[in-house]
């Protein structure tokens, strides 16, 4: 019976704080899908923790989520996920000069994406074009969600590097 009570307590905690915690994580990692993954990880860690020794479960849950987002940022710094931010910046730049080059850049990015290895290309297209979640992509391709994240980061790194390389000669003019 205590396990059932604990399950109800976790369910209630999840229902009460899911949206605010998701918003918190989304602000920290700047990616709703990653935030959803971290939110799930936070509740899994909470579920496996020694909750009887915790006074404020909400605060403890936020601490877990904060630590997960810090770990995520550290991993991505090493892997170069800031490339996604660089790519987003390049794609949102609407200056006339940039617009004139956009067609060539899009053609270049299309060739670059076509040249990615199969699983990486598929993950990229499903995530960015189809707007599928990591979990759905993982199920569809028979991968682990972390593998989906790695493939997406690899694709974004290649696209951002190519976009930055294509941009540099234009800036010199």
Question: Overview of this structure, please?
Answer:
With 173 residues, this protein is an all-alpha fold. It has two domains: 78 residues, Rna Polymerase Sigma Factor, Chain: A (Orthogonal Bundle), CATH 1.10.1740; 91 residues, Arc Repressor Mutant, subunit A, CATH 1.10.10. Helix content is 83%, strand content 0%. The chain is built from eight helices and no strands. The C terminus is likely disordered. This is RNA polymerase RpoE-like sigma-24 subunit.
Number of helices: 8
Poorly predicted segments: 169-173
Q: Which homologous superfamily in CATH is the superfamily of the largest domain?
A: Winged helix-like DNA-binding domain superfamily/Winged helix DNA-binding domain
Q: What is the general shape? A: elongated
Reported CATH architecture of the largest domain: Orthogonal Bundle
In sequence order, what are the helices and strands, one letter per element?
Answer: HHHHHHHH
Helix content: over 70%
Could you name the CATH class of the largest domain? Mainly Alpha
The helix-and-strand class reads: mainly alpha
Report the radius of gyration as a whole number of Å: 20 Å
Distance, first to last CA: 73 Å
Task: Characterize the main sheet.
Answer: none
The CATH topology of the largest domain = Arc Repressor Mutant, subunit A
Number of domains: 2
The tally of beta strands, per DSSP, is: 0
